[in-house]
Protein backbone atom coordinates (compact mmCIF):
# COMPACT_ATOMS: atom_id res chain seq x y z
CA UNK A 1 0.00 0.00 0.00
CA UNK A 2 1.31 3.40 -0.98
CA UNK A 3 1.27 6.50 1.23
CA UNK A 4 2.26 10.04 0.37
CA UNK A 5 3.95 12.24 2.97
CA UNK A 6 3.05 15.86 2.36
CA UNK A 7 3.19 19.20 4.13
CA UNK A 8 6.89 19.39 5.08
CA UNK A 9 10.10 20.52 3.43
CA UNK A 10 12.00 17.52 2.12
CA UNK A 11 15.75 17.19 2.52
CA UNK A 12 16.86 14.55 0.03
CA UNK A 13 20.38 14.13 1.38
CA UNK A 14 21.57 16.72 -1.10
CA UNK A 15 19.00 19.50 -1.37
CA UNK A 16 15.80 20.86 0.16
CA UNK A 17 12.61 20.54 -1.88
CA UNK A 18 9.48 22.62 -1.35
CA UNK A 19 5.96 21.45 -2.26
CA UNK A 20 7.04 17.87 -2.89
CA UNK A 21 5.68 14.57 -1.55
CA UNK A 22 7.56 11.43 -0.53
CA UNK A 23 5.67 8.37 -1.76
CA UNK A 24 6.34 5.30 0.39
CA UNK A 25 5.43 1.81 -0.84
CA UNK A 26 5.99 -0.94 1.70
CA UNK A 27 9.61 -0.81 2.88
CA UNK A 28 10.84 1.45 0.10
CA UNK A 29 10.63 4.99 -1.18
CA UNK A 30 8.66 4.78 -4.41
CA UNK A 31 9.03 8.34 -5.65
CA UNK A 32 9.56 12.02 -4.97
CA UNK A 33 6.74 13.88 -6.68
CA UNK A 34 5.64 17.52 -6.85
CA UNK A 35 2.47 17.78 -4.77
CA UNK A 36 0.63 19.25 -7.75
CA UNK A 37 1.33 16.05 -9.73
CA UNK A 38 0.49 13.59 -6.95
CA UNK A 39 -1.95 10.79 -7.79
CA UNK A 40 -5.05 11.68 -5.78
CA UNK A 41 -5.82 8.02 -5.13
CA UNK A 42 -2.73 7.66 -2.90
CA UNK A 43 -3.62 8.14 0.80
CA UNK A 44 -1.81 11.09 2.34
CA UNK A 45 -0.17 11.70 5.70
CA UNK A 46 -0.33 15.44 6.26
CA UNK A 47 2.65 16.82 8.16
CA UNK A 48 2.39 20.24 9.74
CA UNK A 49 5.51 21.93 8.38
CA UNK A 50 8.99 21.05 9.56
CA UNK A 51 11.46 18.85 7.69
CA UNK A 52 11.45 15.28 6.40
CA UNK A 53 15.01 13.98 6.19
CA UNK A 54 16.79 10.64 5.79
CA UNK A 55 16.69 8.73 9.07
CA UNK A 56 19.72 9.33 11.26
CA UNK A 57 22.51 6.73 11.49
CA UNK A 58 24.44 6.55 14.77
CA UNK A 59 27.65 4.50 14.71
CA UNK A 60 28.37 4.71 18.45
CA UNK A 61 25.50 3.78 20.78
CA UNK A 62 26.43 2.26 24.14
CA UNK A 63 22.87 2.16 25.39
CA UNK A 64 19.40 3.62 25.29
CA UNK A 65 15.91 3.15 26.62
CA UNK A 66 17.36 2.03 29.95
CA UNK A 67 19.55 -0.75 28.44
CA UNK A 68 23.35 -0.68 28.54
CA UNK A 69 24.61 -3.12 25.94
CA UNK A 70 27.87 -4.25 27.57
CA UNK A 71 25.90 -5.17 30.70
CA UNK A 72 23.14 -6.92 28.77
CA UNK A 73 24.42 -8.62 25.64
CA UNK A 74 21.19 -10.00 24.20
CA UNK A 75 18.76 -9.31 21.39
CA UNK A 76 16.09 -7.85 23.67
CA UNK A 77 18.52 -5.18 24.90
CA UNK A 78 19.27 -4.22 21.28
CA UNK A 79 15.54 -3.82 20.61
CA UNK A 80 15.25 -1.65 23.75
CA UNK A 81 18.11 0.55 22.51
CA UNK A 82 16.51 0.94 19.10
CA UNK A 83 13.20 1.92 20.68
CA UNK A 84 14.96 4.36 23.02
CA UNK A 85 16.75 6.18 20.21
CA UNK A 86 14.02 6.20 17.60
CA UNK A 87 12.21 9.21 19.16
CA UNK A 88 15.47 11.16 18.61
CA UNK A 89 15.37 10.42 14.87
CA UNK A 90 17.82 7.51 14.82
CA UNK A 91 16.64 4.80 12.44
CA UNK A 92 19.88 2.78 12.16
CA UNK A 93 22.70 2.25 14.65
CA UNK A 94 25.69 0.21 15.73
CA UNK A 95 25.22 -1.17 19.27
CA UNK A 96 28.54 -0.48 20.95
CA UNK A 97 30.47 -2.64 23.41
CA UNK A 98 32.95 -0.93 25.70
CA UNK A 99 36.13 -2.57 27.03
CA UNK A 100 35.43 -5.87 28.74
CA UNK A 101 36.41 -9.53 28.49
CA UNK A 102 36.65 -11.36 25.20
CA UNK A 103 33.71 -13.50 26.28
CA UNK A 104 31.47 -10.46 26.83
CA UNK A 105 32.44 -9.05 23.45
CA UNK A 106 31.82 -12.37 21.69
CA UNK A 107 28.39 -12.61 23.32
CA UNK A 108 27.57 -9.06 22.24
CA UNK A 109 28.67 -9.59 18.66
CA UNK A 110 26.64 -12.82 18.50
CA UNK A 111 23.56 -11.01 19.82
CA UNK A 112 23.87 -8.34 17.14
CA UNK A 113 24.43 -10.97 14.44
CA UNK A 114 21.33 -12.81 15.67
CA UNK A 115 19.31 -9.57 15.59
CA UNK A 116 20.40 -8.86 12.02
CA UNK A 117 19.73 -12.46 10.95
CA UNK A 118 16.24 -12.21 12.49
CA UNK A 119 15.52 -9.18 10.32
CA UNK A 120 15.63 -6.52 13.02
CA UNK A 121 15.60 -3.37 10.93
CA UNK A 122 17.79 -0.54 12.12
CA UNK A 123 20.75 -2.68 13.24
CA UNK A 124 23.67 -2.28 10.84
CA UNK A 125 26.19 -4.26 12.86
CA UNK A 126 28.29 -3.80 15.97
CA UNK A 127 30.96 -1.42 17.25
CA UNK A 128 33.56 -3.03 19.53
CA UNK A 129 35.21 -0.15 21.38
CA UNK A 130 38.26 -1.59 23.12
CA UNK A 131 39.95 -3.12 24.97
CA UNK A 132 43.13 -2.61 22.90
CA UNK A 133 43.76 0.90 24.20
CA UNK A 134 46.51 3.02 25.65
CA UNK A 135 46.19 3.04 29.42
CA UNK A 136 46.78 6.79 29.68
CA UNK A 137 43.95 7.48 27.20
CA UNK A 138 41.43 4.91 28.44
CA UNK A 139 38.87 7.51 29.54
CA UNK A 140 36.04 5.84 31.45
CA UNK A 141 37.06 2.36 30.27
CA UNK A 142 38.12 0.23 33.23
CA UNK A 143 41.86 -0.33 33.46
CA UNK A 144 41.51 -3.99 34.40
CA UNK A 145 40.27 -4.82 30.88
CA UNK A 146 42.84 -2.83 28.88
CA UNK A 147 45.26 -5.22 27.16
CA UNK A 148 47.25 -5.95 24.02
CA UNK A 149 45.59 -7.56 21.01
CA UNK A 150 46.28 -11.26 20.51
CA UNK A 151 45.93 -13.43 17.44
CA UNK A 152 42.88 -15.09 19.03
CA UNK A 153 41.16 -11.68 19.09
CA UNK A 154 41.87 -11.16 15.42
CA UNK A 155 40.68 -14.66 14.56
CA UNK A 156 37.24 -14.32 16.14
CA UNK A 157 36.68 -10.80 14.82
CA UNK A 158 37.58 -11.93 11.31
CA UNK A 159 35.29 -14.96 11.70
CA UNK A 160 32.42 -12.68 12.72
CA UNK A 161 32.43 -10.90 9.35
CA UNK A 162 33.38 -13.83 7.13
CA UNK A 163 30.78 -14.35 4.45
CA UNK A 164 28.67 -11.47 5.78
CA UNK A 165 27.40 -8.71 3.52
CA UNK A 166 24.86 -6.87 5.67
CA UNK A 167 26.67 -7.16 9.00
CA UNK A 168 29.22 -4.46 9.79
CA UNK A 169 31.88 -4.84 12.48
CA UNK A 170 33.72 -1.72 13.63
CA UNK A 171 36.69 -2.02 16.00
CA UNK A 172 38.20 0.94 17.84
CA UNK A 173 41.78 0.43 18.99
CA UNK A 174 44.97 2.32 19.81
CA UNK A 175 47.17 1.79 16.72
CA UNK A 176 50.40 2.11 18.69
CA UNK A 177 49.42 -1.05 20.58
CA UNK A 178 48.85 -3.10 17.43
CA UNK A 179 51.76 -5.13 16.12
CA UNK A 180 52.78 -4.53 12.49
CA UNK A 181 50.35 -6.33 10.21
CA UNK A 182 47.55 -6.80 12.75
CA UNK A 183 45.43 -3.94 11.47
CA UNK A 184 45.97 -5.20 7.91
CA UNK A 185 44.69 -8.65 8.92
CA UNK A 186 41.50 -7.10 10.24
CA UNK A 187 40.83 -4.62 7.45
CA UNK A 188 41.60 -7.13 4.70
CA UNK A 189 38.86 -9.34 6.15
CA UNK A 190 36.31 -6.51 6.19
CA UNK A 191 36.54 -5.28 9.78
CA UNK A 192 36.27 -1.47 9.90
CA UNK A 193 39.18 -0.32 12.10
CA UNK A 194 39.17 3.07 13.81
CA UNK A 195 41.69 4.79 16.07
CA UNK A 196 40.57 5.82 19.51
CA UNK A 197 41.71 5.97 23.15
CA UNK A 198 45.19 6.34 21.74
CA UNK A 199 48.39 8.17 22.61
CA UNK A 200 49.96 7.38 19.24
CA UNK A 201 52.43 9.69 17.60
CA UNK A 202 51.73 10.93 14.10
CA UNK A 203 53.99 8.36 12.42
CA UNK A 204 52.20 5.44 14.10
CA UNK A 205 48.84 6.67 12.84
CA UNK A 206 50.18 7.12 9.31
CA UNK A 207 51.45 3.52 9.39
CA UNK A 208 48.04 2.33 10.58
CA UNK A 209 46.31 4.24 7.78
CA UNK A 210 48.54 2.41 5.30
CA UNK A 211 47.31 -0.89 6.81
CA UNK A 212 43.69 0.10 6.23
CA UNK A 213 42.67 2.05 9.32
CA UNK A 214 39.80 4.17 8.03
CA UNK A 215 38.25 6.07 10.92
CA UNK A 216 38.74 8.01 14.13
CA UNK A 217 36.40 7.48 17.08
CA UNK A 218 35.07 10.60 18.87
CA UNK A 219 37.65 12.95 17.39
CA UNK A 220 39.66 15.00 19.93
CA UNK A 221 38.54 12.88 22.90
CA UNK A 222 40.92 10.35 24.43
CA UNK A 223 43.63 10.88 21.80
CA UNK A 224 46.97 12.64 21.52
CA UNK A 225 46.30 16.25 20.45
CA UNK A 226 48.13 18.33 17.86
CA UNK A 227 51.10 20.52 18.74
CA UNK A 228 53.48 22.40 16.48
CA UNK A 229 56.16 19.73 16.63
CA UNK A 230 53.98 16.65 17.07
CA UNK A 231 50.79 16.44 14.95
CA UNK A 232 49.61 13.50 17.07
CA UNK A 233 46.46 11.53 16.40
CA UNK A 234 44.30 14.59 15.82
CA UNK A 235 46.75 16.03 13.30
CA UNK A 236 46.98 12.74 11.41
CA UNK A 237 43.19 12.46 11.38
CA UNK A 238 42.66 15.97 10.05
CA UNK A 239 45.41 15.69 7.45
CA UNK A 240 44.24 12.41 5.94
CA UNK A 241 41.75 12.97 3.12
CA UNK A 242 40.39 9.43 2.92
CA UNK A 243 39.44 8.59 6.50
CA UNK A 244 36.26 9.41 8.41
CA UNK A 245 35.97 11.08 11.81
CA UNK A 246 33.09 10.69 14.24
CA UNK A 247 32.48 13.64 16.55
CA UNK A 248 30.31 14.13 19.65
CA UNK A 249 28.54 17.49 19.57
CA UNK A 250 26.98 17.81 23.03
CA UNK A 251 28.76 21.01 24.30
CA UNK A 252 30.86 18.88 26.69
CA UNK A 253 33.13 16.66 24.59
CA UNK A 254 34.31 19.22 22.03
CA UNK A 255 34.49 23.01 21.85
CA UNK A 256 32.42 24.51 19.03
CA UNK A 257 35.53 26.12 17.50
CA UNK A 258 37.34 22.77 17.51
CA UNK A 259 34.41 21.24 15.65
CA UNK A 260 34.52 24.03 13.07
CA UNK A 261 38.28 23.56 12.63
CA UNK A 262 37.83 19.82 12.04
CA UNK A 263 35.06 20.34 9.51
CA UNK A 264 37.17 22.93 7.69
CA UNK A 265 40.21 20.64 7.61
CA UNK A 266 38.57 17.41 6.46
CA UNK A 267 37.16 17.03 2.95
CA UNK A 268 33.41 17.41 2.86
CA UNK A 269 31.74 14.12 3.68
CA UNK A 270 34.37 12.80 6.06
CA UNK A 271 33.00 14.15 9.36
CA UNK A 272 29.95 12.47 10.86
CA UNK A 273 27.93 12.91 14.03
CA UNK A 274 27.75 10.29 16.78
CA UNK A 275 26.09 10.39 20.18
CA UNK A 276 28.22 7.95 22.23
CA UNK A 277 24.91 7.66 24.09
CA UNK A 278 24.38 5.76 27.29
CA UNK A 279 21.25 4.06 28.61
CA UNK A 280 19.68 7.27 29.93
CA UNK A 281 18.74 8.39 26.39
CA UNK A 282 15.10 7.55 25.80
CA UNK A 283 14.63 6.49 29.41
CA UNK A 284 13.17 8.19 32.50
CA UNK A 285 16.08 6.73 34.50
CA UNK A 286 18.92 9.24 34.77
CA UNK A 287 21.57 6.88 36.12
CA UNK A 288 23.09 3.56 35.07
CA UNK A 289 25.77 1.07 36.11
CA UNK A 290 29.13 0.81 34.37
CA UNK A 291 31.71 -1.59 35.82
CA UNK A 292 29.62 -1.74 39.00
CA UNK A 293 29.75 2.04 39.47
CA UNK A 294 26.64 4.21 39.24
CA UNK A 295 26.92 7.04 36.73
CA UNK A 296 24.51 9.94 37.08
CA UNK A 297 23.32 12.35 34.43
CA UNK A 298 23.53 15.97 35.51
CA UNK A 299 22.73 18.90 33.22
CA UNK A 300 23.04 16.60 30.22
CA UNK A 301 26.53 15.45 31.23
CA UNK A 302 27.73 12.02 32.37
CA UNK A 303 30.93 11.64 34.42
CA UNK A 304 32.31 8.85 36.60
CA UNK A 305 33.82 9.11 40.08
CA UNK A 306 37.20 9.99 38.56
CA UNK A 307 35.61 12.96 36.82
CA UNK A 308 36.05 11.39 33.39
CA UNK A 309 33.34 11.82 30.75
CA UNK A 310 31.35 8.60 30.52
CA UNK A 311 29.59 8.83 27.18
CA UNK A 312 26.84 11.31 26.43
CA UNK A 313 23.18 11.90 27.22
CA UNK A 314 22.10 13.16 23.79
CA UNK A 315 20.13 11.71 20.90
CA UNK A 316 20.90 12.38 17.25
CA UNK A 317 18.35 15.18 16.90
CA UNK A 318 20.23 16.95 19.71
CA UNK A 319 23.50 16.53 17.83
CA UNK A 320 21.91 17.92 14.66
CA UNK A 321 20.49 20.91 16.55
CA UNK A 322 23.74 21.69 18.37
CA UNK A 323 25.84 21.23 15.24
CA UNK A 324 23.60 23.76 13.50
CA UNK A 325 22.85 26.30 16.22
CA UNK A 326 25.97 26.01 18.44
CA UNK A 327 28.75 24.99 16.04
CA UNK A 328 27.23 27.02 13.20
CA UNK A 329 27.02 24.48 10.39
CA UNK A 330 24.28 24.71 7.78
CA UNK A 331 21.29 22.51 8.60
CA UNK A 332 21.78 20.66 5.32
CA UNK A 333 25.35 19.72 6.30
CA UNK A 334 24.29 18.70 9.82
CA UNK A 335 21.69 16.38 8.29
CA UNK A 336 24.29 14.86 5.96
CA UNK A 337 26.61 14.35 8.94
CA UNK A 338 23.77 12.51 10.69
CA UNK A 339 22.80 10.23 7.81
CA UNK A 340 24.53 10.36 4.43
CA UNK A 341 28.14 10.44 5.64
CA UNK A 342 27.86 7.57 8.14
CA UNK A 343 26.00 5.61 5.44
CA UNK A 344 28.91 6.21 3.08
CA UNK A 345 31.43 5.19 5.75
CA UNK A 346 29.57 1.91 6.38
CA UNK A 347 29.06 1.36 2.62
CA UNK A 348 25.28 1.26 2.97
CA UNK A 349 24.72 4.45 0.96
CA UNK A 350 23.22 2.36 -1.86
CA UNK A 351 20.02 2.11 0.22
CA UNK A 352 20.35 4.47 3.21
CA UNK A 353 21.21 8.13 3.74
CA UNK A 354 19.07 9.66 1.00
CA UNK A 355 15.43 10.16 0.15
CA UNK A 356 15.50 8.63 -3.29
CA UNK A 357 13.39 6.22 -5.29
CA UNK A 358 14.39 2.64 -4.48
CA UNK A 359 16.02 3.49 -1.16
CA UNK A 360 14.72 2.03 2.08
CA UNK A 361 12.04 4.18 3.66
CA UNK A 362 14.05 5.25 6.71
CA UNK A 363 12.85 8.76 7.45
CA UNK A 364 12.58 11.32 10.22
CA UNK A 365 10.18 14.23 10.45
CA UNK A 366 11.01 17.03 12.88
CA UNK A 367 9.66 20.49 13.59
CA UNK A 368 11.51 23.73 13.03
CA UNK A 369 12.48 23.68 16.73
CA UNK A 370 14.02 20.18 16.37
CA UNK A 371 11.26 18.09 17.93
CA UNK A 372 10.95 14.66 16.29
CA UNK A 373 7.30 13.95 15.50
CA UNK A 374 7.41 10.92 13.19
CA UNK A 375 9.87 8.26 12.08
CA UNK A 376 9.79 5.48 9.51
CA UNK A 377 12.08 2.43 9.59
CA UNK A 378 11.78 0.35 6.43
CA UNK A 379 8.37 1.93 5.97
CA UNK A 380 7.22 1.12 9.50
CA UNK A 381 5.61 4.35 10.80
CA UNK A 382 5.67 5.71 14.35
CA UNK A 383 4.20 8.95 15.65
CA UNK A 384 6.21 10.44 18.51
CA UNK A 385 4.02 13.38 19.51
Automatic annotation (TrEMBL):
Enzyme nomenclature, EC number: 3.5.1.25
Record-level Gene Ontology MF annotations: N-acetylglucosamine-6-phosphate deacetylase activity
Q: Does the keyword Ribonucleoprotein apply?
A: no
Q: Which InterPro entries match?
A: Amidohydro-rel, GlcNAc_6-P_deAcase, Metal-dep_hydrolase_composite, Metal_Hydrolase
Q: Which Gene3D superfamilies match?
A: Metal-dependent hydrolases, Urease, subunit C, domain 1
TM ranges are none
Mind listing the UniProt keywords for this protein, alphabetically? Carbohydrate metabolism, Hydrolase, Metal-binding
Q: Does the keyword Phosphoprotein apply?
A: no
SUPFAM superfamilies registered for this protein in UniProt: Composite domain of metallo-dependent hydrolases, Metallo-dependent hydrolases
Q: Where is each Amidohydrolase-related domain found?
A: 52-380
Give the family per the record: Belongs to the metallo-dependent hydrolases superfamily. NagA family.
Name of the molecule in the record = N-acetylglucosamine-6-phosphate deacetylase
Amino acid sequence: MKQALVGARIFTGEDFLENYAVVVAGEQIAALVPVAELDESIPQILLDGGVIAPGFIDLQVNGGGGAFFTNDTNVSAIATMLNGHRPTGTTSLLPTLISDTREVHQAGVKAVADAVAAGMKGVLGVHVEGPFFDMARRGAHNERYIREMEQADIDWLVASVKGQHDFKVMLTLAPEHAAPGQIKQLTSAGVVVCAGHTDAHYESVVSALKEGLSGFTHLYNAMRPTTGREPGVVGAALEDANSWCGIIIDTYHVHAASARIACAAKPKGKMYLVTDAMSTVGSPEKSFQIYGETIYEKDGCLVNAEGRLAGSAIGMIDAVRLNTEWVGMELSESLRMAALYPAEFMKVDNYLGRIQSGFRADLVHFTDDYRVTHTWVAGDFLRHS
